[in-house]
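thread: overnight batch results

M.L. [08:02]
morning all. the overnight job finished for the chain we discussed friday. pasting input first so we're all looking at the same thing
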Amino acid sequence: MFESTSHKKKHSNEESAQKRKEVTSWILSLPAMLWLMFFFFVPYVIILLYSVFTADIHHIDTTFSLDAYREVLSTRYLNSFYISLKLAFETTIICLLLGYPTAYFIARSSEKVKNNLLILIIIPFLTNFIIRIFSWRIFLAPHGVLNNFLIALNLIDTPLRILRTDFAVLLVTVYVYLPYMILPLYSAIEKIDFSLLDAAMDLGAKPFKAFRKITLPLSKQGILAGTILVFIPALGSYIIPQLVGHQHSLLIGQIITYRVRNIPRNWPVASALSFVLLLIIIVLLSIFYYLSISIKKKGFENNHEKHQ
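M.L. [08:03]
and the structure it wrote out:
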């Protein structure tokens, strides 16, 4: 009876401590959240207003109309939404498959090697984004570095058509967003007590089972964070497909730009597309948030059961 009461009291104290941590984290992040909410909220209010106006040849007519949403929700843009979602999913999966072993290796390395590898991952951020994309154009061009190298080795007779393909868009998108997957994964994996793996293997668990039962569950927060950081910007990508892609597979970001830039301009349709894309992102973020909360709750319950 006494032990049961003690466990209940301990469980209550752990819950209270967890709630205090959550409240503290919310208070500390509040200024940044208010700043971001203001500078995201105001532009999207303007976009929402533009989306219910009437299109004019050069700008807009302030007459209320839902024609833009009727056009956006028709089948006309389904293929572009599909291509954008497909690119975002493929980019996220490839970044996860490449980023997880990289982050794991960095986390298990010595302090000196770890710092050097992290610097190598961060270095691309010091170079202008556009310059990096143009570097890939030079590398993948029909008479670029890659094709000239393969021809010099007599591996091919004619240049490969890599630039202006869906593969080039995926390749460059993965290159750009891979660090955004590696860094949160590294942050999560580094905090793991690796002596747990040694203990599991001492008890007869094989390396893969130890990884699946210990390392992977303890790094789920990093996986979720990396997934969000890669998926969302890849979904609205514009400059990468514009510079290395082709006009037969237009992404939503490209269509929005064309609707604003090209004559006849259609600001309401561009705004409606942006707003629908925002709604898709909100739904996906809600799913990610729910998964994150579920993982935290499950981990807390597992720890409580172990203590009992």
